[in-house]
Amino acid sequence: MILFSAFGGSGLAVETLYRSKRGTVRSYLGTSDYQGTELELLLTSRTVVDDLYVFNFFGGFTKALSYTSNGSDIDVSSVPLGWFYGAGNAIQVPFTDGSAAEVSVGYDSAYLQYNGDESRVDHLRIGLRFIQL
Q: Which letter does DSSP use for residue 79 in this model?
């Protein structure tokens, strides 16, 4: 869910997003199911070519709001902000009413430093959004 969105004429954008996540982590240590919510501040620099192709660099910060692992609630109040950066491509399909649909694929690396350790997670981002131009 987009809470706030601002776009500049220069291709710069700032968005605040609230999202729910859920999934399963598999590793040599075993399998763990998780779910949670987070708040994200997303900063984007976009270049649009021929009103169709979009290339963007993005980065921002995330804050975990809730987290449940294998059915147990985990306190995330002391977990600091995480940060990420990445790049992506999109195809923008304009409609006659001045709006557009955008299908995007991006890749990012996310980092979190906590209790003297740093974790890094790579994500493949696939998205569909509608834009009022």
A: -
